[in-house]
## 1
Amino acid sequence: MRLLALLACLALLVGATGALAQGPRLEPAPGALPAPTIGGPPSAIAPPSVPIEPTTPDLIMDLSLARVSITSAFQGESILLFGMFDPPGEIVVVVAGPSARETVMRKQRFMGIWLNTGRQAFDDVPAYYAIAASQPLQRLLARGAGGEILSLEDRLASLKPATPRDAPELARFRAGLVEVKRREGLYPAAIGQVTVQAGRLFRVDLPFPSRVPEGVYDIRVYLLREGKIVAAVSRPLPVGKVGFNAQLAGWSEHEGALYGVGAVLMALLVGWLGGAVMRRL
Amino acid sequence: MEIYLPIAELSMNVFLLLGLGAAAGLLSGMFGVGGGFLATPLLIFVGIPPAVAVASQANQVVANSISSLQVQWRRGNVDLRMGLVLLAGGMLGSSAGVWLFTYLKRIGQIDFVIAVLYVVMLSTIGLLMMFESLNTYFKRRRNPDGPRGKLHTHYLVHRLPLKLRFYKSKLYISALLPIGLGFIIGVLSAILGVGGGFVLVPAMIYLLGMPTAVVIGTSNFQILFVAANVTFLQAATNGTVDVVLALLLILGGVVGAPIGARLAAKLPGVALRALMSLLILLVAAELLTELLRTPSSLYSLGTREVLP
């Protein structure tokens, strides 16, 4: 009888982890979808120096998902960005994650052992940065897109070092930063060119790896004609944990002591029950 | 099947983590040590950030030691007085250890310190165990009954002040000794995410001269509270305890431990210890290679700080 009760307890626990692995399903939240921006660029986006035609051409875009939801089953996500524009022209898509200070560390051999000896912090490093275009980017940007569209290299060249250092060393640390971010899939080298169909429909896949940092990402789409920005639309894309994951992460961050007590109690309970059950089998 | 670990912030295979827990449990069942010394480096090896691996492993140690303590306590194998004295040192040591961990993490040297400490500790213990088991093996072949030695030998350490009587352990030694030992184990536990049983158990036998019967139970007692302290402090100060990760390791361990205990009952002790020492040396060698080999990338990133 007692054995049965104990077995039931274990089954419950296993069930709980199973549910946890399934995780809360992604909620599409169609209501949260901001209406696609139609028409010309909002004044906040277009710098005043950019000459805009009296009648701004149409540029519409939307995403296959309104947000990146990090559930227990999250393994990274690929979001489809699609839209339509008034031909002619070329499309450039820029996705930037929230900025933060990142510290780059460099290893060096010291008495035969590799250890971190150099470090350099940069302010204002985007957590994620991806850029794609309907034509080779260099060619488009070489014609000068008003200095607003930045390739990854240009974006990172403007990083502010937290502490001063000579230029060649800074460049090496900056290259190291890109190398690590590339490896983690956060600065995708090529997110595939933007494909254009029927001269006016465009689409591109935006890959987000499982290690994607949380925050509100900024997605911008530009329409270029003869190297000039003639229309632009932007959209925030929230990336964050949802459901159980969000709750746990929140407790861990804001209620660390309480979370610690909970973790210890969980271990005591599972260890005690598990030990008792297994010894009887 | 992949699962997203909310604090480690990456997704990982569920069965890999369950298997890791089971392997650690198997070791703990076979040798009465926590198995954390094997699980933590492996967790780091599969890509869990070291800070999260260490803190979550401490959480797993809590579950592991309560389930062994259940049995040891019932059999009366816990020297409570010795356990409490050890624990006094252990609490101080683990608190100091978590502080040290936080500091090392901030200056970016925690991975290095973890690796070096593991290499030094594992190779020392592995070699000692290897020699000891080979020695026993050959001695036994020469003299099957084996000579009976003294209950324990007396060293300089027995002349320290603050002497206490430990009735269950049949010892009259300075309390400073177990306090100091507890302190060291506490620091190790906090930095490496291990219970420290594989250091504590030999030290209690050879250094303190405790009878073997009470060693496992008493060390389990101290480890339980030290690991709980480490888990709590890591969660409160660093927020690096991943309970999803810990739960998977614990569930694996719950299944692995009794299998290990049954295996241990069937295999001869000497062979078992030789096997264990080989395993320990293997992990040490792997970690040492990591330190010496030219890394695939010279660069790594520290913690992201969102500026106000």
## 2
Amino acid sequence: MERKLLQTEAEALADAGTGEAQAASVRQGEKESFGKKFKNSYFARNFKRNWSYLLFLIPAVVVTFIFAYIPMYGLLIAFQDYMPGDSIWSGYWIGFENFSLFLGDYAFWGLMWNTFLLCILGFIIGFPLPIIVALMLHTTRNKKLSKFLQTVFNGPHFISLVVLVGMLQLFFGRYGLVNNIIESVGGERYSFFLESGAFRPMYILSSNWQDFGWSSIIYLAALSGVEQSQHEAAQIDGASRFQRVLHVDLPAIMPIISVMLIMSIGGLMGVGYEKVLLMQTDGNIGVSEIIATYVYKQGLVPGGRGAGYATAVGLFNSIINLLLLIIANTASKKFSENSLF
Amino acid sequence: MKKVFMAVAIGCAAVMALAGAGCGENDDRTTNSLDELKDKYGFQWEDPKKPILNETGAKELSFHVYSSKNASAKDYNEMDIMQTLYEQTNVYVQWENVSESIYGEQKVLKLGKHDGIDAIYHAGLTTNEILRYGVDRGALLAISDYLDYMPNFKAILDSRSDIKKQVTSIDGKIYALPRVEEMGLLQNPNLLFINKTWTEKAVNEGKVDLGGQKIEDGLELTSAQMENLLTYFKNNDMNGNGNANDERPLSFVWNNWQGNQCDLYGMFGLNDNLEHRVIKDGKVVYTVLDDAYKTATQFLHNWVANGLIDAVSFEQSQDQFLANGKGTGTDEKYGAFYWWESETVVSDPENYVCCKPLKGPNGAQTVCVSNNPEISMGEVIFFKGTPNVEVLLAYFDRYYMPEISAQINYGPIGIAFEEEKDNGKLVAKDPPAGKTTDELRLENAPLGLCYLSGDVWSTTVEMEPRAKLRLERLNKYATPYYDHNSVKPVPNLQFTKEELDVLARYQTTIDNYLRENIIKWLKDGLDDATWTAHKERAVSNAVGIGAVQEVYQAAYDRYVNEK
């Protein structure tokens, strides 16, 4: 799923690079190609003209096929009483038992709610932030400062998750920097890792801190494609800098924003388990147990329900993601001109 | 273009690798009948002093054993003890070592398709896995059919019915060789240590009355005395570094396998452990369903709320706990702590005395009875269809001989043990300069399959000094504090497939439910209504303790009634 999204992301980028005009022409070409009469000739002509560009697609297609489509046969084990080592076709079929077990599980709604909340809160903060940052960096007059800040903002992206959580523990642990400061100003030490109320803010803010610079790159790229003449025209009309951001820059990157929005919504329930698991303690497990960590525990930790069950839960999660993606895409298609497919 | 071809080529290679993974390597070894083995290769197993095979056998027969090894261990093919075994038995075993983390990933794959592997050493199989791969899928060799070739293992099973019961699967067969190391160190994992100088200070200032007891090993404290002491530790600058806030009154590592919180519940008569599951008078009981647990939680909540139990205990790792204990004089931070031994925790163990279990408000005084088994069941497994497997079994049977077991577990004679025996006993050798005993052991001992139990310690091998010290302490300050006839740990039990399904169904849920709530109660307090609701909810199918308790009871009843 994720791989596939990455690929579409790459395509979207390419789309943005070559400009709307070409994309529109391709779409138009598709529409007309439905007409039987012209199908062959149009397709052939398109292909003839663009074959060298299409060749560049091959690595992406091959990689996606190998790493995303071939392994999909593994989904079959969601319907089996599967033990690692069994052949996929060895036939311990149990139908939808794994799914009904999960849907009927006492933990089900808690997991869904925790996953949803963690993602939606992260999304509400994490989605607009890179856009704002990109607009700010782009509008900064001092280009040197802008470049410098961009580098600084990108830095945290390269910290590994384990190190990041280690840093959190150093800073927010009971005897960490933050608590030492709290105590020195006369407060009580606060266990950030034990209080369930502290888990979501800590998780979300640290994630956003880590990724806002990196995520803003795509918007910066789009912003650099804004015609300078539009800015000049706006200046002559007497637009302030803020007005120019609002009425020139923002509309220019709107297509990218909506594509990114659709994709973020598609990945809304797809938060990774690593960081959550690293931050999980007995104190916050009530809010930090999400679908991904649950899948890990059931599938890989001894004593869990096994690979089949874990696959079923993972598949269920992916289906929700797919539905969200389709809903978001349809909505976007209806309300604006932009959509993924 | 080149790039494209590369990508396509790599793609094709990957597809072929995927497809190729299915084919095993060809095994060109021939299976010999027993008579052939005897005639041609001189196969014998009765006399443990003589080789198992003759010279021809050493040359022509070979076995391939897959094993994980710890990072600092030598390759098993180069270990002294393995070469000694080869010389003694003439059985050629080729070891394939992988790191422990790789084994974790490979384990189930190897169990499914064993690719020319005859056996897995350090297999670490759970009951569930043995049942599924042995009974269900029939991939594992039933060792019990070959007991005749294993005189040492057979003797162990004959003399120890408890071991036999624990390793025998539900279908009456044995699929894995166990590791047995019984020093009696694991049952009660915690000891309470308290800071001597700090306690003296408290007594001298009249903050606490210890009833004239001397502050030395064997100190007996009531919960009230302990509370006074911890309060005093917390509020004063005990180590004299000018900061009254860096003292940590009572520390431990929450839910660690040792040095955990469980002994604290002993003040209320509970023999708690990490699973909260213990055998009492033949019944499987959950301490978290006992009303004493409520009283204990309410009591301990006060200690947590007042900072007497350092809240970092709930979140710290073992490494952090150990690191914070280091430092003497003004750097000393620990007032009291639970751990396996004091020597590894603090820089100045002389300054910490080992206490008896705390005496509760109502006079109860008992300890944690853990379910850490001293017998691990799935240590070595063999695959069906291994040629001449009798020879390999006879070879591994030698591991159970006391002197071999000791060398497997600690390291070879000449490195870990002196060449000269003392009264027929192996004596530990001092490590060469610059190395610790632990390092030497990890490097030279494969660990794993061994039988070190009861009289072995008095006849064959001398216990290491650290183990002796701990045993001595346990015998004084832990073991006498519970009724061994009534309270027992839950042994390794054998479950049916249906029972295992029930366990798998509830395990994660119960685990999460208890982890979340226990700590919440300790932090935020527990009122009677919550407790009543908890007792009802915990046994219901929403959490499942009731169902799991029934499964354990049934399995335990079978265990007890089995002859």
